[in-house]
Amino acid sequence: MTRAPLMTVLLGLAFAWCGMTTARSEQLRIALVISNGQYASMPSLARCGASATTVRDALRGRGFEVVERSDLGRGEFDTAIGALARRIAASPPAFAALYYCGYALEFNGRSFVLPTSANITRDYDVLTQGIISKSLVDSLSRASESTGFVLLDAFRTPSAVASTGLGRLLEQLPPSNFAVIGASNDGPAEGPTAASLALRDQVAEGEVSLDMFMSGMRRQLSKDAAVTAHFIPAIGRPSVLTGGRRDASPSPAPAPAPAASAASTAVPVHPAPPPPDPSAIASPIPPPPRQTMTDEEQMSEQDRRQIQLKLATMGYYLGRMDATFGPETRAAIRRYQFEIKAELTGRLTAEQATRLVNSVR
Question: 127-156, pLDDT tens digit by residue?
């Protein structure tokens, strides 16, 4: 091979290597936008369609790859979240955004978002038909080298008396590599939600870090009396949400906030009350008395429903609360017996039933 062709080959390889290096250094920015507006058994949410469009256009305009999904049933919802989680896990370090608009509900100390297939006729129906809000964040945060945010833009179900149930997120979610915003919408309104408009405004121009985005969202949503917003900041390396080179090193992290402000808070933020007078502190409230259960043969219908509800709360049972210990209930009992290292009979002894109903989980 002559010298000239050899140089041509070498230059071609060099350019190809540069192209590969550039592609590898380009950080994936991806967003999943879910709009659940048409429910089978609840009033439609016209605002979710407009809000999802606002979020989609804002993120797409800033270079995000946006995946849009609407009116998802339970299986479709799980599939969409799983696909996003796998995508960012395969492309570290990625920046991911998850936006959900739809109904949310709280039950038994847990927060749930609702697929459009949900038919909540009794409070505990949400255990088998809803999706635990915490699981959405957990699915994404397993990609530890990536970061991003989750924005749950939620509405109260017709049967709910007060909040949407997003407030429980504060107790359930420890800080992770993903920031979380739970916005509860109250009061009559039309068009895009305040949270979707705030997101649009915060990513509108210039270079925006995740910290700046969260601060701006907090500041903007605090001005809207019809929205109660909860914030959980991300921890870990700083990240650039929009602007700048995607493969550039992020700017130094800001100085840590004082311990009192590190915890997630709801907005509007009210001044902290003065510390109580130690002499005025009452004695601790005693725990509720331990409930004693009988063998299955002696259980009442209420006892059996309580057993099924407890098994469902712990994630063992997905059937109906009908007080009938059929095959599904027996299978759930065996799962519980496996956990407590008991014989897998599928039938509860009085001791096992007592231990189950008094479990703190």
Answer: 888 998 888 998 999 898 999 999 999 998
pLDDT of residue 178: 95
User: What pLDDT, on a 0 to 100 scale, did the predictor assign at position 22?
Assistant: 39
CB 58 within 8 A of CB 200: yes
CA distance 55 to 166: 20
Query: Domains in the chain, start-ordered, CATH in brackets?
Result: 26-267 (3.40.50.1460), 296-357 (no CATH)
Which long-range contacts does 82-90 make (Cβ < 8 Å, 24+ apart)?
82/139, 84/30, 84/32, 84/139, 84/140, 85/139, 85/140, 85/142, 85/143, 87/28, 87/30, 88/28, 88/30, 88/140, 88/143, 88/146, 88/148, 89/142, 89/143, 89/146
Going from the C-alpha of 179 to that of each of 95, 200, 221, 238, 355, the distances in angstroms are 11, 17, 16, 12, 37
Whether the CB-CB separation of 249 and 211 falls below 8 Å is answered with: no
Query: What does DSSP assign to residue 96?
Result: E
Rounded Cα distance between 203 and 201, Å, is 6
Q: What is the pTM of this model?
A: 0.65
Contacts of 120 (CB under 8 A, 6+ apart): 41, 42, 105, 114, 126, 129, 130, 157, 159
d(CA 9, CA 1): 11
